[in-house]
Amino acid sequence: MKLGTRKQSLAMTLGATLLALGTNLTACTARFNSNSLFEVNRYTTTLSVSEDSADIYFPIVSPSANAQFPIVLMLQGAFVDKADYANYASQVASYGFVVVVPNRLRTTLNPAGEEATGLIAEQQQVHEVLSDMVAENAKINSPIKGLVDTQSLGLLGHSLGALVAISATQEELCLPAICTAGYVKPPELKASITYAGAFGDSQTQTFFPIQNGDTPIGLIAGSLDGVGSPNNTQQTYNQVQNPPKVFIQVEGANHYSITNEDNLEREPNRPTLEQAVATETIARWSGLFLRAHLLNDRDALDYVYHTGDALDSNVSVISQKPPIPEPSAGLTLLAVGVMGVGWRRYRNFY
Questions:
Q1: Which of 201, 218, 217 is nearest to 348 (CA)?
Q2: What would the DSSP string read from start to end of 269-325?
Q3: Which range is the signal sequence, renumbered to this chain (predicted)?
Q4: First to last CA, the chain
Q5: pTM of this prediction?
Q6: Is the separation of the CB atoms in 60 and 39 below 8 Å?
Q7: At a CB cut-off of 8 Å and minimum separation 6, what does 253 contact?
Q8: Neighbour count for residue 54 (Cβ, 10 Å)
Q9: Cβ atoms 228, 349 nearer than 8 A
Q10: What is the dihedral of CA 124, 126, 128, 133, to 10 degrees?
Q11: Domain-by-domain residue ranges, the chain?
């Protein structure tokens, strides 16, 4: 893929800096492997608090390791079954997370008074899944007994689920049909990164300020999204009030590049990036963003905010970075350091 002017500039600057330091990009980045870290297992259960059916993906580790992994809640797109996220969720889990993908089946009225029944994510799932995972972590026969860090939560979301996840990072603005009255952002919520979502009115192109407090937000979009619009996602990025924040565009991906298969009925555009490659790309950036902010992983932080844009030819990235860590991240860090609305009105955001 041909690099844009900004990416060419970054690559040239990086190359020149490394040359001046008497080394090369390959030698520096060899210290950090952006690939998955764990083998993953999966099981399906009925969650005890929400009573939702859920698929749970978790890293395989030795019982003697005494490892615990943060919770990551995946909020589904409208009418998309949890099973359709199997490839994506398992790849995110491989970065060191217990990923929960529930089916939230419900009936709701939108502000226009229209009734809808189906798989529709909502804000209260955040608190419910926190309670569900405390219970699951304590069950004697649970495959993840003792494996869950119940004090740390990250959010993923697709389409409508992305809108829910963005809403869950704040308390000031609640949108119809997806929010819970009296919602309070839990202290366990440490970061949110979503795909194909936006936060605003698609008809008037009005995008709402996102008062995310100290919760980092990542937004990923496909350049060929024909259901929403990557521009809407980027405009949402502009409205995130508090960095760190990042916008990642995946070139050649469409609205359903996050799912196991493309959706020929609901998406008019066909992707040019192979489905497996697109899903891996979205999952890798999601997993590393969550590692950066849930696990304070400096190498992941460096990849997301500094080196990844130049290293991954399938993406373009804009960001406002957190403070640069101490120099322990090594020479690579030194080199790169030298970067009342109805559902119809939200249809492009689903």
A1: 201
A2: SPPSS-HHHHHHHHHHHHHHHHHHHHS--HHHHHIIIIIHHHH-TTEEEEEEPPPPP
A3: 1-27
A4: 28
A5: 0.83
A6: yes
A7: 222, 223, 224, 225, 271, 273, 278, 281, 282
A8: 23
A9: yes
A10: 170
A11: 36-298+341-349
Q: Could you say which architecture CATH assigns to the domain 36-298+341-349? A: 3-Layer(aba) Sandwich (3.40)
Structure tokens at 119: 């798989």
DSSP code for 346: G
Indicate the pairing of strand 217-222 with strand 206-207. Answer: unpaired
Q: What are phi and psi of 32, to 5 degrees?
A: -125, 125
| Length of the chain (residues) | 350
Q: Strand 53-59 vs strand 98-103: parallel, antiparallel, or unpaired?
A: antiparallel
- Please give the Cα distance from 216 to 242 (Å, whole number): 8
Structure tokens at 155: 């959010």
The set of residues, in sequence order, having a beta carbon less than 8 Å from that of 203 and lying 6+ positions away, is 345
How far apart are alpha carbons 312 and 258 in whole angstroms? 17
Q: Give the position of tokens 């060929």.
A: 224
Asked if 242 contacts 212 with a C-beta cutoff of 8 angstroms, the reply is yes
For 223, the 3-state DSSP assignment is coil
Angstrom distance (rounded) from CA 303 to CA 32: 9
| Beta strands at 189-195 and 217-222: parallel, antiparallel or unpaired | parallel
